[in-house]
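pipeline/complex-builder :: batch 7 item 3
reading input block
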Amino acid sequence: MKTFRMGGVHPEENKISNDAAIEVMPVGKQMVVLMNQHLGAPATPIVQKGDKVKVGQLIGEAQTFMCANVHSPVSGTVLKVEPCKDAFGLAKPAVYINVEGDEWMETIDRTPDIKRECTLEPKEIVAKLKEMGIVGLGGATFPAHIKYSIPEGKTAEYLIINAAECEPYLTSDYRVMMEHAEEVCIGVSILRKALGVPNAYIGIESNKPLAIKKMQETAKEFEGIIIEPLKVKYPQGAEKQLINAVTGRRVGSGKLPIDSGCVVSNLGTAFAVYEAIQKNKPLIENILTVTGKELPSQHNYIVRIGTTYNEIIAHSIGQLPETTGKVISGGTMMGKAVVNLDAPTVKGNSSVLVIGEKEAHRNPETACIRCGKCANACPMGLEPYLFSLLVKNNRVEEAKEHNILDCIECGCCFFSCPANKPLTDEIRLGKNKVRAMMAAKK
Amino acid sequence: MNLLNISGSPHVHSDESTKKIMWRVNLALVPALLVAIAYFGLNALLVSIVSVAACVLFQWLIEKFILKVPSTVCDGSAIVTGLLLAFNVPATVDMLWIVVIGALVAIGIGKMSFGGLGKNPFNPALVGRVFLLISFPVQMTTWPQVGGLFPMSLDVTTGATPLGILKEEGMAAMPQAWDLFLGHVGGSMGEVSALAILIGAIYLLCRKIISWHIPVAFIGTAFVFSGILWLINPEQFLDPLSSILAGGIMLGACFMATDMVTSPMAKSGQLIFGFGCGLLTIVIRNWGAYPEGVSFAILIMNCVTPLLNRWCKPRRFAC
């Protein structure tokens, strides 16, 4: 079975919400739509206080290159346009909307029929991805229209769809495969057409045999979609590792996947692409998992973007259990701890993960015994223990020479450290110091 | 409800700890300890207890009164040092007080003077052992002979180790390889049975506490090098199988050269480290003043470890 060439760990999978079918979460009374839900500059709000908006109406426009459109997830009246704190406590420009009814834009096709034919030309597809505000839903929220506009001099040879879902707990991609396999395959075909590549590869970790079977059966009806079962090993779904597993190629230091002839998109993105291109539906919904060992029930939801964490918790489980220690947006390996539960969800959110008090605490740090487990676990072939020492002693230049910027922050080093050293934290700090040093030199 | 916890990712841990690693090493040493008790009786048990107790006590005293830091004796690393030190000395009554001095040198000079666990450049047990070998040459080379199983008497006959016999009397007096494998020979406690050492080593391999690189490179090099010498002159040199079974190669290769703190981290570095240990052991045995060279070989290679860590980098994913 295919896998990446070095390192990796195997955390407890905890896919306890696997069997929970996707439910639709009702719309709240007020929505806060952040203007930067994507990598790059925030979108510019084009509505004002008092404006009436419909579901799917453009409210934030991408006016710079690295930016994406933002659409209203609800219908109602704009209450105000002012900054709002996001889930991690940072103020971001936002549009507040008082919800009134559920009136959708007439252009959006809300029928349940599946539309297979796509007559758009590649350039038109990319333009429509931009119009619909599609971003990568694997975590980095990279604007899709930029990813699918291949720069001159580069050629795409592989389209790889990331359905590894190697993060513990997360099951949203799994549920999409089980319930919307055909739509996903149509979305993948559209992306394949946009790139003009012969084949698209969908990488799925082999701990999802039902999804692999379902996708294989569905993909038979489509041209050029190949399902690749992958070994269960974290971080199988990290972009560079996935490219390595599927194609055997390696993305160079500081290079992008396209430099190795690859384009990688998340499975959720493929589904969003189907809805955007075939149904004219902008990216206004997330599919996210509400899970945790101590929760009374496990869920997968379709949630309008802008619903707050508290609303999601209230609807799904009533309230957080007494023993809650941490709420995480994303999986346990790379997800971020939520600071502010009143914050709205944004594009690319994949979960509300509740961790118990016991698990939320780190064990005390002890002395490094130079076991080398961190270096063995590193999927990038780096030496985390060395970075830890260099960063602590402010030897930033040397950290850069030892390629600290190659680090993908997957967390394998801290995960496997018997001395509980916060290696990933220290490397993050080191990367920032290196970047600051490089910026100062310019 | 309580306040939420905030931290950077990852939010889970493998639950590995230094403590677990050290206690597993202790567990892996139990088969060899049992064999030692079976062959050398109460003396072996007494020497082990005294050695372990002294190591733990010295570490506790130094941490409490000299370094004034929270005690780390619970992590089990001092017990590993104590057991390995006991395994490296003869199981005789004379050793009971000598091993206490060894423990002081091992823990005090070998480990705590550098800052404690993780900072010592040399394997502490070997530092203690070599100190004793140089300071107490008579007691340290008075090896009890293996009698029947479970001898209860504290008085034992003494004699030379197989390698000592070789050095003094030549090839003809050497015991058979099979006896060496089971441990039915004279020697220090932990070196007698290759089988018991291997059982412990296999457990450590399964637990991923050691990797195969150092033991295989160490034993393999010793086997090949002594094999070449034996082919050149079988009259003068010991055959390769007996070479790796006699003396401390098994214990050294599986438990002491693989010490995480004092061996290289990269696999390529570990192979070079093991190769150096094997080569130096055979060189010292055949041309050195001492019949056995494992301790010196490992200590010399310990010196090279920082350089190996610098030279042998893991292969980068992105280049």
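note: The first strand of chain A starts at residue 22 and ends at 24.
queue -> next item
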